Amino acid sequence: MTVKGYSTCVLVIVLAELVTGLEPNPKGNEELRNWSVKQIDDAKQVWVWTAHEVAFDVAQIAVDCIHSVQYDCKNPITSDNVLSKLKDIVRLHSVPTWDALDNDRCDICLVNTRVNDVPDGHDLDAPSICSNRIRTCCSCLRNTYINPIQCHTCGHTIKSFINSHCGAVLVAGFDNDRGASNVFKSDIRKFKVVITSKIFPAMCLEDENVIVVPEEANMHSMVKTIYSAIDHMSEKDIRTLLFVYSGHNGIYGLRVGEQEYFTMDMLSKKLNAWKRKTSSFEKLIAIFDCCEPEALELNKSLKVVQLNATGLGDEAYATRNHGSHFLQCIIQAFTANATGGRCQHQNCQCISNVYGEFITLDKLLNCIDEHRRNGHLGGIIPTENVQNINIKNEILAYNYNLEVVLRFTLEWPIMFETNKAFVSPSMFDKFDELKRQLTEDVIKGAFGKNNISSEIRSMFGSIMRIEIDTGPKIKHTKEIDTVEMLLLEWSSMRNLRCTFRRPSDIERMKPAGHFLQDGQCVKAIHQQCKIEKPFSEIDLGEYIKWLQLCERRDNSKLLNEYIHIIMILQRKRLLRNERLGISFVDLPKGFTCAYMEIVPESSHS
User: Fold this and answer.
1) Any idea what DSSP says for residue 33?
2) Residue 510 forms beta bridges with which residues?
3) How confident is the model at residue 1 (pLDDT cuts 50, 70, 90)?
4) pLDDT tens-digit profile of 359-400?
5) Helix%, strand%, coil% for the chain, nearest 5
6) In which band, very low, low, confident or very high, does the pLDDT at 62 lie, cut at 50, 70 and 90?
7) What is the per-residue pLDDT across 234-280, written as a single tens digit (0 to 9) for each?
8) d(Cα 589, Cα 583) in Å, to the nearest integer?
9) Do residues 534 and 579 lie in contact, with contact meaning Cβ atoms separated by under 8 Å?
10) How many whole angstroms separate alpha carbon 7 and alpha carbon 2?
11) Which interval of the chain is the signal sequence (predicted)?
């Protein structure tokens, strides 16, 4: 496999980081990927790289990698080449394959304390007799979903015991009132985001191991759909099942459809059948956010954690604006330390119960109870039922206690210097909400004031482009246009850039902009043009001729620049069945934006 593009840049940066101990973008210096061999070697960590020639050889590999892409060489370096070179270094300098430090530190990061008294991920697939097990910390163990670890001694792949072989069935209940049904569905969607998120890595479940019932536009029997979801999990070697229900419960059971009910007895029998069929199924975590849930009657060998919003005879509560008090409390406990470490209620200190590297059942129950005692659960008293749970298997999730903030580089021609914007994922649920937040940051950075018209704000949001680099050249970029893509790229440690969509990147439903300083003359010439607007492909050619005539008359550098942009659009041949709309918007500080969008032919007629 040829290593090129972004993968090569990542490898270069990682190797340079290992040698120098610096960040990818050191303050006061150019990016590491642009350093020479001598620069990297001169900045090496001498206390780490005691064999100085080894550091030099690693730096040489890094530079060779980037050169093979930048200069389009005929024989680019491959991943096999890199591996071979690294092995040669190891052999030449008699570097041991592994040399564990004589302390309690993680063998991977060498910084954090290794985990103790919890499964280390060695024996999840098959028991291994390992004389010198690799030692991992909580962070490295959690990150195995993106950075797999192989034991240096036995070669066993280390897997996180929290998300490996773990699946979830999330069920939203039914109500005759569509608004109430939407509350249940919203709660379930939010819970799915939390357990699959790589931004707030509480559980890091894989999306394909999480089933939501009902799925959109599901017209099948809900009872059959739930049975099918559990069957699907049993066929995937799932060993820990998370079952969550949010909705109504009554004398007929959990109300999952207009005339359908799913009883606790039905669920118990289904899970017991799974256990009889597959002995590897070993643990159930069940959350019932409903009134009066009964205790499940399960196989005595199963480990069971059942959390109930209420006890028998009590009612659960939810609001249309905030959803269920109980489920929101659990979601908050799983994510609060990554969003500032505070409860959403100012005087509630419930989150102080969630400490350390893992969220255990005991910590979660204490958090919920303090939240209740402070009056934030609507008067309900949650209950729990446990079976075969002890101090070694009560861990529910990771406690990610570093505040998560997305950092964006703001690059706009209306800003005289590159700025940074910092946004917490808790500030937005939808991509448009993020763009509105970034719009405010751009406006403040460019104009230093907030009294900007809604028209300008709307235009900025529509032409805003969030992108990442995919290679070493300027053209190697990719636009991010969903929350899912954004979080994936952030979790992969990509640099996020907020800029504007240039005319060369215009598409249907993706408008573009071109900024001109002191561009009133170009705006006036556009308004004087009598050609029918928005422009068809033929009209655009006539428009260019008109602009060129005006440019010869006025000898305007700005107009010449604008003509060049329009000619690029013409060469893209985007208007065979569509039209190009162009309008000019005046901005503060003498700027003008030429706003361009592709509109369907039908909208013109």
Assistant:
1) G
2) 507
3) very low
4) 999 999 999 999 999 999 888 899 999 999 987 789 999 998
5) 40, 20, 40
6) confident
7) 999 899 999 999 999 989 999 999 999 999 999 999 999 999 999 99
8) 19
9) yes
10) 10
11) 1-21
pLDDT of 204 above 60: yes
CA distances, 390 to each of 62, 143, 159, 398 (Å): 49, 25, 22, 17
CB 94 within 8 A of CB 88: no
The mean pLDDT of 289-313, rounded to a whole number, is 92
Structure tokens at 314: 């009590």
Which structure tokens are listed for 453?
Answer: 């018209």
Please report where in the chains the tokens 């979801």 appear, as a residue.
229
* Ranges assigned E (strand) in 210-327: 210-213, 240-246, 249-250, 253-257, 260-262, 283-289, 303-308, 318-319, 323-324
Output the six-digit token pair for 539.
């009209």
Picking from 501, 504, 509, the residue whose alpha carbon sits closest to that of residue 479 is: 501
- What pLDDT, on the 0 to 100 scale, is given for residue 513? 95
465 in Cβ contact with 485 (< 8 Å): no
Contact between 204 and 280 under an 8 Å Cβ cutoff? The reply is no
The rounded distance, in Å, linking the Cα atoms of 535 and 522 is 17
Structure tokens at 431: 């991509």
> Which tokens hold the place of 469?
């680099």
At position 468, the amino acid (one-letter code) is: I
Higher pLDDT, 354 or 378: 354
C-alpha closest to that of 274 among 226, 241, 305, 234: 234
Closest by CA position to 463, among listed 491, 500, 504: 500
d(CA 207, CA 145): 12
For residue 243, give Cα distances in angstroms to 50, 183, 264, 401, 452: 53, 18, 12, 26, 48
Q: How far is it, in rounded angstroms, from Cα 527 to Cα 562?
A: 14
pLDDT digits (tens, 9 = 90+) for 460-501: 999 999 999 988 777 789 999 888 788 778 867 789 999 999
CA distance 418 to 465: 15
Single-letter code of the amino acid located at 13: I
Residue type, 337: N
Q: How many CB atoms lie within 10 A of CB 520?
A: 13
Report which of 377, 138, 388, 399 is spatially closest to residue 285, judged by C-alpha positions.
388
Helix 52-70 and helix 5-20, axial crossing angle in degrees, nearest 10: 160
CB neighbour burial string for 150-182, b if at least 16 within 10 angstroms, e if fewer? ebbeeebebbbbbbbbbbbbbbbbbbeeeebbe
Q: Which two tokens stand for residue 384?
A: 């729990």
Question: What gap in Å lies between CA 332 and CA 371, rounded to an integer?
Answer: 11
Q: If you write DSSP's letter for every residue of 74-85 in order, what string do you get?
A: SS--BHHHHHHH
